[in-house]
Amino acid sequence: MKIKEILFFISFFSLGAWGQNNDKPKVFYNLNDEEIGWQAYFKLKEETNSLNQITATDSTMQYRLIRRENTGTLQPSTFLQLKQYLSALSGKEIRENANIVINYLSRYPEKNQPSGHSSRSKWNIYHKNYLKKLHQLAPIKQFWMHAPTIKTLDYHHANRLNWLADEKDALFILFFKKTVALGNYILIKPDGRYCYYLGEYGKDHVLRQAEDFF
């Protein structure tokens, strides 16, 4: 057994996995929600750069892999409704030739929401040169969106960023469907083709993806 597989085993079955639930049987699923062994699970996670989703049921601990990068195409009527929704929230007109970039802040437990106003996140997606570089790539409408459950945004530079609540959970329902830590981003072309990325990311990742995608 490889060293990193041993460490994975220890972290999942001895240290973490929610303490009192450690005695429950562990069940692992691949990206197609098919049951697999834990070694195959770990190998696939590394190969696909997937995220873990851990769920406790009455009888088991369930571990599922979540694909981080996803692509698809919105139906014309759905895309029109999305643009109308974003325009209504932001007051921004979205022209037909505009690409759309959405930086989305995920929901997280109320007890973990930063409440102090004295500090600001150092996440580099908030660097001031991010938007400047982004708009140099193509005609782009960019939006800062957050889950409607998030109430405190001072930590996330609300003093200078125009955060908009995804009031109807439209982005979550249409794209993400799963809650992951920190945030996600979405790139959408004028023809409705999209690419979204789940989980923690940096500004360079968005800029590289946007350059390639647009």
Helical residue percent? 25-40%
What number is the mean pLDDT?
87
CATH structural architecture of the largest domain: 3-Layer(aba) Sandwich
How many individual domains?
2
From the alpha carbons, calculate the radius of gyration and give it in angstroms.
Answer: 19 Å
Low-confidence segments, given as residue ranges, are: 1-11
Order of helices and strands: HEEHEEEHEHEEHEEH
Strand content: 15-25%
Total E-strand runs: 10
Number of helices: 6
Shape: globular
Class by SSE composition: alpha/beta
Alpha-carbon distance between the two ends: 43 Å
CATH class of the largest domain: Alpha Beta
Protein name: GWxTD domain-containing protein
Organism: Mesonia sediminis
